[in-house]
Amino acid sequence: MSNSKLYKGSLSTIILKLLSKEDKMYGYEITQRVKELTKGELKITEGALYPALHKLEADGLLEVEMQKVDNRLRKYYKLTQKGTTETVSKLEELERFMETMNGLMNPKPSLG
Amino acid sequence: MSNSKLYKGSLSTIILKLLSKEDKMYGYEITQRVKELTKGELKITEGALYPALHKLEADGLLEVEMQKVDNRLRKYYKLTQKGTTETVSKLEELERFMETMNGLMNPKPSLG
DNA sequence: TTTTATGCATAAGAAATTTATGTATGTTTG
DNA sequence: CAAACATACATAAATTTCTTATGCATAAAA
């Protein structure tokens, strides 16, 4: 993650969200997908991505499946049951954060 | 900051935004204002707030004015010129972040 | 008189990054 | 054909930003 400043804490939500619609993805693929979906606004660095994936796996949210393609090793990640549940809650959390920030940035003048 | 998980990096933006409409505020006042504006969703802890204020001051974005009220000392902060400029850019950054996250969470299916 | 509110501050530790490397294979390009 | 770029993973050191835990001080409320 670099360039357009990301708020720390959002990376795992991004990963989980992508995996919730793709069934399985590998690390490099995730960096490319994010780059294309955000038109280059967001660039996930490997230094952030791989530790994040390892942590999600260690927490039991992702499971791994190795695969050799074109003589190159790929590590495919997919959501576990627990991961699917956690994804929902992370997305709700993001939603709340966005609404809260909106309320702070554009406060409704109190009536009366 | 505790409770409703905040994305790290947003605190200084919140502080700057509040000061951009209030002329001057002191630390404790900021914690209370945030609590009331977010209906308790966001609670800024002193451990996060004071170091953040000190950093903004050190960076030349805020200036300080001490004042004694009811035998209690208050440290009022206000935006400097540089702080006003930086506020605009921080708000744009937040706006871009929100749009980017929205694009990731609700991607438009590519036409064709 | 103990808790709660007001008001500031710092220090230790944790979490999530950035930046800098390292390894390896395959393709493109000058 | 050598150098650069793309693909693919990984880790380590340093930095940023926060949480948690204290500490000090005044004043009001219970």
From TrEMBL, chains A, B:
Entry keyword DNA-binding: yes
Domain annotation Transcription regulator PadR N-terminal: ranges: 15-86
Keyword terms of this UniProt record: DNA-binding
GO MF annotations, alphabetized: DNA binding
Protein name: DNA-binding PadR family transcriptional regulator
Organism name: Mesonia algae
